[in-house]
Task: structure prediction
Amino acid sequence: MSLSGEVTLRSSFFVGGDWRPPVVPRPGRLIQEAATGKVLAETPMASEADVDAAVRAARHALEGAWGKTTGAERSQVMRRLADELKARAPQTAALVTRENGTPITTSLPANGYAPGVILKVYAKLAESLDQPDERQGRLATINVRREPVGVVAAITPWNYPQSLAAMKIAPALAAGCTVVLKPSPETALDSYVWADAAEAAGLPPGVLNIVPGERDAGAHLVAHPDVDKVAFTGSTAAGRAIGEVCGRLLRPVTLELGGKSAAIVTEDADLDAFLKALPEHSLANNGQTCHASTRILVARSRYTEFVDAITETVASLRIGDPLELGTQVGPLVSAAQRERVLGYIEDGRRTGARLTTGGGVPPRPGWFVEPTVFADVDNAGRIAREEIFGPVLCVLPYDDEDQAVQIANDSEYGLGGTIWSTDEDRARQLAARIRTGSIGINHYALDPLAPFGGVKASGLGRELGPEGLQPYFALKSVYTKPEAR
Ligand code: NAD
Result:
C-alpha cells in the first residue's frame, strides 16, 4: 500500500450524522504540508453557529436512543468503529504526517493504529457497565448508577491528533455520552477520518460530531450552556483559560497540558540503552511530544561521556521527508512553530548554554529545525523551564541523587520523565521521588491500560486506563428503604 496520505477535500462539518456546510460563510484555513509548505487544502473553520448546531445534535442523540443503550450495545458499535479506523490506519497516519510532519514510523502507531486499540480497551470496559452496583449501606440498600455525564466537548491539539481524540471519544462513548470534537485547525483534515469511520460503523447520528475551528470556536464550545463536560489537551496557557471558565460554570473538566520532563541518568546507567531509546523518549515527533524527557540530568562522573555521546547520536539522526520510513526527524508543524523554537535556540546561545550540535535550519523547504543539544544548561534559564516543543535537548550535570531529584522537581510542570539505571530498585526509589504523572524506567511507553496525565501545570485528571472512564460518569446513588425488621 502506498502511504500517500491522500487528501479528501471537505467543505462541510460532520454534524448529526450529516455533512453540513458552514451555517455562516467565513474564510477557511489553508492547510500547508509541513515538509514542503505546499497547500494541501482549504478547509472550513467552524463559527459559533456551527458549534451550536453540533451541540444541539449531540444533545438530541443523548436524549434519544443512544442515551438508553446498554454497555454491551455500545461496546459492539465501538468495536466496529475500531475496525473501520484500523482499516484506514496507514492512510490516516500518512495524512497526519503530511499535515504536521510526524515521521511516518511514529505516525503509524500513534495516529494510525492507537485509536482502534484505545476504542477496544474502552469497548471491553463498556461491557462491564451493565453489572448493577448494589451495596448494603448503613441506612439503606443502595444502587449506584453510573449515568453518562452528558454532552462532551473534546478539544485536541495537532501533535498526535488521532490518539488524543481517541483518548476522549472512547471513554465518552463507553459511558454513553455524546461528543462534539473540536480539532486543531492545523490537523483539521485527518479529523474527518473519524466521521468516515463512524458512518461506516453505523454509529448513530449525533453521537459524534466534528467541527474543526480556531480558538474562538473552542472557547464558544467550552462555555456552551448545553455542554456537560470538557476534555482538553493542549498548551498550559489555553488549559488555564479553559479551567477558569469551567470553574466559574462548575463544569467538570480534564486538562492534559504541557511538560518539561527530566531524564535522570545515574552513574550506573547503560549508555547504549539510553542512546538507542533517545529518539523515542526525548525527541519523539520532532520534539513535539508533551511527555518528552527534554531535560537530561546526568551524574557528574558520567557527564562528559554522556554529553559527547548524546551530541553524536543527535547529530547523526536522519532528517528528511517524514513520509519515508528511514526518516527520524521531520519538520515542525508550521512556520510559526519553527520561529518559536528558533527563538528558544537563540535564547540558549545568548544566555551561555553550550551548543554542542544543531541550532540551525536544514536547507530544505518546509518547517525543519536541526536537532539541537545544549550542554551546561542552567535549570533557572528559559530553555530549561519552558516547553520548547521542538527538537531541542538540555543536558545538565548533578552531584548526588538528592540534587538530581531537586532539579527534576524544580519545574512548573510534572507530566513524564525517565530514570536510567541498571539497578532497578534504585530506579524505582528515584521514580517515587519525582513529582510527575508518569515515569519510565530505562524506557518510556505510554500504555492504554495505565492512567496518563499531569501534576502541577501539566494538568488536571487522567485519561487512559479504567481511571480514564470515571470523568465521563455522573454517579447517582438510589437509596431504597431497607425492609422493616
Ligand atoms: P493549544 O493550546 O494552542 O491548542 C490546543 C487546542 O485548543 C486547539 O484545538 C485550539 O484551537 C484550542 N484552543 C486554544 N485556546 C483555546 C481556548 N481558550 N478555548 C478553547 N479552545 C482553545 O495547543 P497546541 O499548540 O495545539 O498543542 C501543543 C500543546 O499541547 C503543547 O503545550 C503540548 O504539551 C500540549 N499537549 C499535551 C498533551 C498531554 O497529554 N498532556 C498531549 C499533547 C499535547
Notes: The pocket of nicotinamide-adenine-dinucleotide is lined by residues 155-160, 164, 182, 184, 214-215, 218-219, 222, 233-235, 238, 241-242, 256-259, 290, 387, 389, 415, 454, 459 (CB under 6 Å). The first helix runs from residue 48 to 63.
